[in-house]
Each structure stands twice: as C-alpha cells, then as structure tokens.
From TrEMBL:
Keywords: Activator, DNA-binding, Nucleus, Transcription, Transcription regulation. One of its GO terms (molecular function) is sequence-specific DNA binding. GO terms for cellular component: nucleus. It comes from Lotus japonicus. Pfam families: DOG1 (PF14144). Residues 1-179 form the DOG1 domain. Its main location: nucleus. It is found in: Nucleus. The keyword Cell membrane does not apply. This is DOG1 domain-containing protein. PANTHER family: TRANSCRIPTION FACTOR TGA7, TRANSCRIPTION FACTOR TGA9.
Length: 197
C-alpha cells in the first residue's frame, strides 16, 4: 500500500511539472526549447523541451522484472505509437521553424510592413508554445499509459530507472565539466561514477 502511495505521488508530481511547463511556455517558449535549466548532457537529448517518450521507454523497459507477454505487447505498441507521434511533431516543428526563419529574413524595407512580419513571427512563437504543450501531453500520456500497463511494483521500478537515468546524465555533465577544469581528472576515475551495479 505504501508503494502505491509513493507511485501515485510520483505520477502526481509529473502532472504538476507538466502544468508548470505549460505556464513557462506561455512566458518564454524559447527558454524551454533551449533547455537552459538542464545539464549540458541532458540538452544533448532534448526534444521539444523534454525527452522523447519512446527514448524513455527504451531506458525503462530493460529495467523491469517479470513482464508478461501481454505487457510486452502493450509496451511495444505504446513505443510504436509514441514514435509515430514524435515523428509527426518533429516534421511539423521543422516546418514551423522554417516559417519563423522566413518571417524573420524578409527585408522590411523591401517587402513593406515590419509590424506585420513581426506579428507573423510572434504567431510562430505562439505555435512553438503549442508544440511544447503537445509534446508534454504526449510525455504525460505515455507515462500514464505505461503505469496502467505495469503493476505498482513495476511502475516503481520504471520511475526509479527513469530517475537514475537523469541522475547519471547530470553526473556525466558534472564530471565532464570538472574534467575540463581540472587537468588531473582522469577518465578512469570518472568511469566508476557512471556504472552502478
């Protein structure tokens, strides 16, 4: 029973996080896209203001114990549907970014009204915020569907694996930054940080 309370608390935490990100997207969508709050290695894997749900499934699933055939099939279907939506979002985002570039590159002296061009660019920025919200909705729904497929114990394992993954990414960032500042820092000493039993 206590494990269920912890799992529900963690899922509730993620729900609140996605609501906070929606507010942040309204305030400054470019900040969310840049991933400035994330460690440098985390930014390497950034996709529309967060992680790809299919990538997280690839990280979580190998850590789960005693999956039934039905669970494996459901997880594979979830992964496939997540990848399809991610691909569609990525394509739409490419088109939106090109539209934003086109609006910014138009010479206001040649083409006419600078105000109209900036208004179009602002509309593109609002659409970027919508992409962040949709991507977060996909992340949230994937997390919730995953928790419905799994038992409470397996969900706890998955959340733990996800937390461990992000912790190791931040550790790698810190170790890399320390290495670049300290010439005495060796690769051997940093390797022990990343491979937990």
């Amino acid at each position: 029973m206590q494990l269920q309370i912890l799992v529900e608390g963690s899922l509730s935490h993620y729900s609140k996080l996605f609501k906070m990100k929606a507010d942040a997207a309204k305030a400054d969508v470019f900040y969310l896209f840049s991933g400035s709050w994330k460690a440098s290695v985390e930014r390497l894997f950034l996709w529309i203001g967060g992680s790809r749900p299919s990538q997280l499934l690839n990280i979580i699933v190998p850590q789960l114990e005693n999956l039934s055939d039905e669970q494996i099939t459901s997880i594979n279907n979830l992964r496939l549907s997540s990848q399809q939506v991610e691909d569609a979002f990525s394509l739409g985002l490419e088109k939106l970014q090109q539209s934003l570039v086109d609006n910014i590159l138009i010479d206001p002296l040649v083409e006419g009204n600078f105000g109209l061009q900036m208004a179009a660019a602002m509309d593109n920025a609002k659409a970027l915020a919508s992409f962040v919200n949709q991507a977060d909705h996909l992340r949230h729904q994937t997390l919730l569907y995953m928790s419905r497929i799994l038992t409470i114990g397996q969900t706890a394992q998955g959340l733990h694996a996800m937390g461990g993954y992000f912790h190791r990414l931040r550790t790698l960032s810190s170790s890399w930054a320390a290495r670049s500042c300290d010439p005495a820092f060796t690769t051997q000493s940093s390797n022990s940080v990343f491979f937990e039993p």
